[in-house]
Records
---
Amino acid sequence: MRIEGRKWTTLISAALLCWVFPLVAASTPANGESPNTQISAAEAWAFPQVPPPDPHAPKTDPARIIHVAGSTRSYTQAQLDVEHFVPDWFPQDHLAAPSIVTVDRHPGWPWPCAECHMVNGAGVPATAQIMGLPKAYILEQIAAFRHGQRGASAPRTTQDMADEARSVSDDDLRLAADYFAQLKFVPHTRVVETASVPKTHWKYFVQVPDQDGAREPIGERIVEVPVSFDDYQYNNDRTRYIAYVPPGSIARGAVIAASGTGAAAACESCHGAKLQGTDLIPPLAGRSPTYIARELILFRTGQRSNPEAAPMRLEASQLTVNDMIAVAAYAGSRKP
Ligand code: HEC
Ligand code: HEC
């Protein structure tokens, strides 16, 4: 997650042009399969995109010293540019991390978990917040990634996580799962209802407001932007986000969470009254609304196909995109 085609972005940029859109079905497929099992064009906002590197982007100075607000540490641009290097801006924020979390095992996979999930597990909207997830759930999901039950034909980013899961050793995995499960979850997203949003473009897996400050109607989507793109690009694990959602989403989501909608059961009946989760049912409160909505779409399309996901596949098949946005907005706005 760094500027101009480095790091995570470097590898992926090769595959990026065929990345999201082959998955997007503009209309009902010829085989008569329900469009509900396809990712629709109206859902593309939930799937991170990486435009090709800008050939006119100004060159960065390798000797430049980089700081982020509140940290006493600094790194040179050259250090940050080393492939799979992970900065640790706030060591006081987390336990001592096992090497699989922070240190590259080159060549090839596995990569340090922190490259995509941050040292403290805060993640970014394109990956997942994994700080404080129950250990049993982390292990179960890694097994799903390993068995092609999560990420088989899903977005490129999910396939990267599957490559990671297949290459990490069981010992390292246990250490990583222990570590992330012990961290306290700290939400970093503010959910804001609004009819009009900044116009944005995709930059390295995240949406960024356009320079000219133009605005546009939000329509039916979530637009989640980092408060500071510099924080994001320097892997600052205290990066904060704003998730813009359509007006009325939070109240509508609260009703779905508490009472369900149509044939969909109340989320709280399984995820808990505070959406805090249990051992094998993950927490939803305070997590990225974009992540929550994306996962709901992936349950509906069957791309999360491990047996434990069966109740969620049923649940998601009963929700419209609008319901998903509403319930994701509500869950994201709740204090964990
Ligand atoms: C190359 C980037 C990358 C690396 C490295 C990476 N992950 Fe992930 N991880 C992802 C992405 C992307 C997702 C979300 C996939 C999706 O949305 O379907 C994810 C999802 C997960 C999830 C599922 C979270 C949930 O709530 O269901 C877990 C658990 C996880 N990663 C653990 C790890 C661990 C442990 C490591 C290190 C051993 C690691 N990841 C390394 C990219 C990565
Ligand atoms: C019948 C029980 C049940 C109900 C009702 C339910 N869930 Fe779930 N949910 C689960 C289980 C179990 C999982 C874990 C799936 C797995 O292990 O792969 C899960 C996982 C999820 C995830 C994935 C989170 C992650 O970390 O990747 C999301 C998002 C989610 N649920 C949202 C919802 C929403 C929103 C509702 C209400 C509209 C809801 N769930 C209702 C049982 C339920």
---
Amino acid sequence: MRIRAWLPLTLLFAGALSAQAPQAGQSLTWAYPVPDATPPAGAADPAAKGIPGSSRSYTQAQIDDQYNPPDWFPDEHSPLPNVVQKGVQAQACGSCHLMSGMGHPESATLAGLPVAYMLRQMEDFKKGLRKDPKVHEQSLRAARMNIISAGLPEEDMRRAIEWFAALKPIVWYKVEEAQTVPKSWINGGRMRLPLPAGGTEPLGNRIITLPQDAKRVESRDPHSGFIAYVPPGSIKKGEALVNNGGAGKTIACAICHGEGLKGLGDVPRLAGIHPIYVVRQLYDFQVGANTSTASAQMKKVVEKLSEDDMVAIAAYTASLNP
Ligand code: HEC
Ligand code: HEC
């Protein structure tokens, strides 16, 4: 009884402490989006819709059905493996990674990544070797994949991965250096969208990724990409870190990630990948949220990187054509 009575007090005290002293890495919340408590006025649009170039039409409820997501352009890919189109144990891959495999900033790109690399990630997610870092646990990024991979039959997993690996990646980002950016909010699906009321705010040392056309992206349109607003000077700074290691701060990436960062063997491509995803991975490697055997190769690379360095690296890699 005594212990029970103590518990809430202890929790309160811990809560008060953490509110006063921000933990390391907390400044990266923009890379680990969490839904806003209340959506802004004018955000919802439940009408049936189409997108340019597709003869199909879906309601927003159908578009947001993660167990049966829309397939706007069935002629642009080979037949969908079952789990890409239909959620069985968990949501369908195509709802978050799209039928193009390019995905959204809050998920990940899979198009054209090596089969061996992706299968290894699925194993690592399943075994809990790749997790969310403690300070961003509520963002539920790796946590999504920890659950999805755990319930997936081996054969379904292989088919889905081989299908995504065969897709051709496209240019998905326009990278712009900027001092100020549109004011934005995070929707229930953890995507950052411009505020319907407009307005701007300072970018600071963040990367803010927004749809080039919010309505189309909210329709899971596989032809409509994103803008990444990055700090002035960051692309050039990132290029120096990536290409020659920034005078011993890190290791030149192309040695392992291939020329133009287009991938090499089972080491994945970095060119044109979601920049906030790249920041998440660099930070996850640095704080040991990824403890897989293969991730050990990234240890020395990230050891001395500051958050500003990670921002610069991601700004540069996002600017490269896949
Ligand atoms: C509910 C959304 C969601 C669904 C459904 C989903 N994923 Fe993911 N997936 C994610 C997120 C989020 C990440 C990125 C995790 C992070 O940022 O650490 C991810 C990452 C991955 C990665 C790692 C990519 C990389 O570059 O390392 C692979 C592989 C992957 N998913 C495969 C799949 C497959 C196969 C399916 C279907 C069986 C699937 N995912 C379904 C959200 C999802
Ligand atoms: C010694 C080889 C090596 C070097 C050098 C290297 N990497 Fe990697 N990197 C890897 C390997 C191997 C993986 C895959 C790890 C895994 O399977 O978990 C990886 C994974 C990554 C990922 C995660 C990709 C994804 O899709 O999730 C990022 C981001 C990354 N590296 C960035 C960089 C950057 C930026 C540099 C240069 C500053 C760099 N790496 C240099 C070997 C290397």
